[in-house]
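Q: How do we represent a protein-ligand complex in a form that can be generated token by token?
A: Start from the inputs.
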Amino acid sequence: MCFIGIIFIHHNRQLAVQQAGSYFDTAAYIFQPPNSYFVDHQSSKSKTTQKSSSKQLNYNVNLFEELKRTSESGIDLLPILNEHKQQISESNIFKIMKAYKGPALDRFNDYPNAKPHYNSPYIGVKQDNNYCDIVDTYNLLNPQNVFDTKNFVGDYIPKSLVKKFVFPAIGQDVMPDAHMGVTVRRWKMNETATAFFTKSVLMHHYFKIGTQFMCASQIYNHIPGNGILTRKDMNVGMVNDYAKKYENKPQCFNKHMYFPYAYRLNNQTECTQFFAEINSPEYHQLKKTEPVPFIIKIGWGAHRGDGVFLFDDAKETSIRETYQNGEICGENKKDLLAQKYIPNPLLLDLNNKFDFRMYMLVASVNPVIAFYHDGFLRVSLGIYDKDSKEKGVHFTNTHLSKKTFKDAGSGRMIHNMTEEELRDYQMWTMEDLQDYLLQSGKIKNDRWLDEYLRPKFKEAFIHTIRMSQHSYMTLSGAFEMFGLDFLLDEDLNLWFIECNASPQLIGTNEYKTNFLTKMLTDMFEIQYAYLRSRWRRIQTFVAKFQTQASEQGTSSMDIKVWKSEFDNINRNRLEPEFTISQDNTWHKIIDKNLPGKDAYLGFIPEECIDDEDL
Ligand SMILES: Nc1ncnc2c1ncn2[C@@H]1O[C@H](COP(=O)(O)OP(=O)(O)O)[C@@H](O)[C@H]1O
Ligand SMILES: [Mg+2]
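Then emit the structure tokens for the protein with magnesium ion bound:
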């Protein structure tokens, strides 16, 4: 039985620690009163308000040293930290450095009118306001927890690829039973966790960032503020605003060549423009050759083809009715978009449509650092026919092939393929596409992927990040892997369709399981390299701070100078000891540590970079 008897005696800021039991070598540690404390500039103006001001900042030099000695003696620190969380909280260096950014309410744009749920349990975990005090102190005292282990908390269900293969292959799942389905408070959050990897994008709606989770020594795979990227309604404004910057430089960015033009029907101006367009003679002319000129999409929250509808005759009639042919634009607040349908998709060998699911890693938002990863083709199993009313012909969502698989499963061969063959066929690699295009004579260059398609994707990713980055909350521990959908048309133009947070991580066959596992392993290599680099700098910083505080006393230290140094070291960049391996499958496309156009690693020309970047 372990018993650590520590008695804290509080008297005028003095606290004494005595120990009993067999864990300490000496009879007693005495924690001296802090030799000083910080008073920030505002409260130092008035001596009288100093004591009562909540802005008063304490730093107890001895507390940290005492805890460090305890840690070095091999005792498990977590129970001790928990027992004395109040003292630790008051002296938390990250609070003094204002490193905790607060609850991020201003970046809740995942869905309209999003609100915090800090009193509702999530993944079975209770919220604890001292969680970050404990975690970050623990990791300062036990840096090997950051440097030598990869401890995950995820909300995926226990039989998911993430929990079954990925976490064990990379590190360990420190809360294997916690998942989205647990709705009662069962556990406290594990304090050795260094990475949160969740499918739900709302973890930060349930736990306060920098208090209850996502502490200074932890990373989290969603960027508060990412709604601009992941909501179709917000994409429209994002693209239009960005395009304005390039009105006179269409060679740099032309929204009509990047995103199929879209009107938000709950926006009076755009709705009116849409009806003006569909009431024009040109539109009636167009309808003769293109039976589906638009596609209607729900603005947010619908996926897998559920929120997309063909603007066929029936849909057109109902939309005209709902908006009284544009007369009542602005009144109907339903979050719908009308988007131009790409009429000339490149087709594959069965004359079928496909789209790309590509992966983009925003590895850091402080500063922006991003990577590209190959994806694959999602191939429709229906023969493409412009006049078809079938969703599965026009939309390439894997989900829509369920019925085809069922038919094939019941013994009926489809396109001469069995169910298993169809499942494999549905996912082509980018190399498969290049081979097919070479064979069919559509391209001649056998380096087409490297010389044309990948650079084109990289450029599109860079624009996608540039048009959304102002919305991201700049937290050093936030990163996100997005799944981006693109269409390729007959002229080999790429079209951005949508960006998904938490792309499906399901290994539908062995190839995909291996592909996803490698991609995620490599992603965590990158993320831990940045976290560890940052933690190395923070360790050095805290050691320096400690030394100066114990030698000179904290009252002579200028908090502003220290804070500014902290802000600098807390920005992500790699330290030489934490490099990324050569065979990592992610390719860097942005690194804002580099100056000017170098930040885009040659993927966009200098003339396309504006003043903001220089
Ligand atoms: N503007 C468009 N033109 C042609 N096809 C489109 C267009 N928008 C979407 N699609 C097709 O429909 C599919 C579903 O659309 P998407 O916006 O990705 O909705 P979801 O969120 O349901 O996946 C896409 O994968 C693509 O194949
Ligand atoms: Mg999609």
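Confidence is low (pLDDT under 50) at residues 1-56. Residues 397, 485, 498 surround magnesium ion (ligand 2) (CB under 6 Å).
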